[in-house]
Amino acid sequence: MPETAETGNSTIVRKTLFRLLPAQILLAASAAVTGIISSLFAGNYIGPDAMTAVGLYGPASMLIGAVTLMMVGGSQILCGQYMGKNQLEQTQAVFSLDLIVTAGLAVIFTVGLLAAGVFDLTRFICADAAARSYLNPYVIGQAAGVFPLMLSQQLAAFLSLENRNGRTAIGFAVQIAASLGLHYLLIAVMRIGTLGLALSVSLSTWLLLFVQAQYFLSGRSMMKFRRKMRAHDALDIFKVGAAGSLSNCWQALRGVILNGLILQYVGNAGLSAFATVNTLLAVFWAIPGGMIAVSRMLMSVAAGEEDRETLVAVMKNMILRFVPLMAVVSAGLVLSAVPLTRLYYRDVSAPVYQLTVQGFRMLPICMPLSVIFMHFVGLNQIFKKQLPVHLLSLLDGVVFVAGFSALLIPFMGMKGVYAANILNGICLLPVIFGIAWVRRHRIPKTPEEVLDLPDSFGTADGDRLDLSAVSMEEVVSVSRQVEAFCRSRGFDQKKSSLAGLAMEEMAGNVVEHGFHMDHRKHAVNMRVVRKDNDLILRIRDDCRPFDPEERSRIVDPEDITKNIGIRMIYGLARKITYQNLLGLNVLTIRL
Q1: Do 63 and 189 lie in a common domain?
Q2: Cβ atoms 142, 111 nearer than 8 A
Q3: Which of 423, 448, 473 is the last residue of a domain?
Q4: Which residues of 37-75 are buried (b: 16+ CB within 10 A; e: fewer)?
Q5: Mean pLDDT of successive 10-residue segments in the chain (591 residues)?
Q6: How far, in Å, CA of 69 to CA of 507, rounded?
Q7: Number of domains within the chain
Q8: Whole-angstrom distance, CA of residue 580 vs CA of residue 585
Q9: C-alpha–C-alpha distance, residues 424 and 396, integer Å
């Protein structure tokens, strides 16, 4: 049974998201896995005081993460939109500017952390001299890894845009292997305490950066360094990225508030338990982190193409697949609370043991709800809707979690802090619905109305024809539909016939050749758009990337009798452009 245009596009979107997802999860999990390695070595070779140092450093880590996320989110969204518009020079300019600015910010953070650790400036956040004896060396060791941490996150985002996720996976494997070896050497053998704990992570992150940078230095990448950059692009990166990273900034403030509340009402055992649970769950938080990363990339490109249907398909995939998947993962974590706790603490009578078990049984419940929140923040970020992003980030980052914690912790202890995180996720859902209600001045009745896409975004239904095909027979049928659509929209017979022929030849070439390059099931999605007096055809498929050299052989072959139809299209079209966007072949023809 033939696929409709909607199901064909949805299939391509779903397959693209899940193809990109593993690498993005690995990327998001890399720091978390090294954090788990550190916590295991800390618990077994140094003691609970080391985990207290990790917890106290948490807000600083969140702040660095917020700035890093600002640069990643802003540059990734802008590059995706420029790629969607087929503007390569602007894409490369944003790439170059992002790396320069990120490097400068990394130097500032490095100097600040070194000063804090060397000159005991940490006393402003921790009055306990004994705790600072563990914290200061840890901060110094972390300073050595800020530069590779921030730069590697940028390069990973650009590798994803170029569909080079395999290199990210290789870098991740190298980082983890090095981290294990360095932790054993510096902590188990040399026994240099929390300094070795942090240095092990920092040095392994340098190796990750080296693996990633090799691709961009090889000259094979689409992203190339350009000396000609535009200052206003930096402002756009900050403006677009800051909205999404504010959540991390607020979480840094929330961390300071929660640390104070826990120390006041529960004590060091509570802070150690909280740090332990968050350290391990950070690996699993990489799953929703990877989900929003791939969705944001695809939504950014769709925004550049003014493709409303793809945006809706991404959000439907989030509801129907990402949220249920995260719910299953969360349930597994809740059921595994005791064995997870025993990785760190063995004495079941110790307060830290019981508090850690409570954390593993409650905090994972937040994860499915966070998937929804993160996607709505990302969508508003792409469309530069600053107020909803700032409001949601503030509520999630500080107001709900810190507010509920302050109310509950005097009566419930650590359970109050854990419950506050769950209540936060529940309370954010009606806020998201309410924002759409207020902005549209009516109750949203459809998923698209809840998304609150701008009315001016995309092409009117009457000026657009969407089709899909999975066989040559369907391609021939599509040709007739395209020609009829063009005629009904006022184009003359010649242009209408050319549009039908162009779609048949180009889509047929995908079905005939691309579909048989592997053993996977494929679909080709086609769109015809009337824009002013122009006729624009777009053909998108998820087959293997198209080789530009092959295109040149098709257009100008040695045998002039071959590919006559395709060569005629290249000769008659006003402009034909090809891009590989996130592993999707996108051919745009302007007639």
Answers
A1: yes
A2: no
A3: 448
A4: bbbebbbebbebbbbbbbbbbbbbbbbbbbbbbbbbbbb
A5: 56 82 77 77 77 80 84 83 78 90 95 94 84 90 94 87 80 89 91 90 93 88 78 79 71 84 90 87 88 85 79 89 95 95 87 93 93 88 82 87 94 94 92 87 79 72 78 80 86 86 82 74 82 80 65 52 63 76 80 79
A6: 39
A7: 2
A8: 5
A9: 6
